[in-house]
Amino acid sequence: MKALGRNGLIFGGLLAFCLIGTAAAEPSIAIANAWSRATPGGAGTGAAFFVIENRGANDDTLLGADAEVADSVELHTHIHDSGVMRMRAIERILVPAGGQATLRPGGDHVMLIGLRAPLVEGQTYTLGLTFALAGHVVVPVTVKGIGAR
Description:
By secondary structure, the chain is mainly beta. It has a single domain (29-144), classed as PCu(A)C copper chaperone (Immunoglobulin-like, Sandwich), CATH 2.60.40.1890. 13% of the residues lie in helices and 52% in strands. The chain has one helix and ten strands; from the N terminus they run αββββββββββ. Strands 1, 2, 3, 4, 5, 6, 7, 8, 9 and 10 form a ten-stranded mixed beta sheet that branches. 21% of the residues are buried.
């Protein structure tokens, strides 16, 4: 076997450094405290709440979500309409670079429509989130009590 020589060793070292750096790169989007409220029997809808942290240098956008516990999943917000709080579907939620977006009761949230079974306190289900830059991120969601805040 022929020796690589000085240039071959330098090239090999640089290649290894690049590959290790790529594999160890931390994702730019992190999800914290993902939870839902338990639903009473017969309820057709539920919601998921969490904090999205953008550790990246560029703004990212939450574009949609999916979950096996519901027939469809939408991004929603609450608005004041003639003194009444109403939910509205929205197309995206901006997550600023170096910042976060908080999805919470009474604000932006993920709406679970057509629940396939009630959400039961202590249960965990999987929620998929689709971002413009970060791609598809899967997060476990813990179901808390019906009155959880």
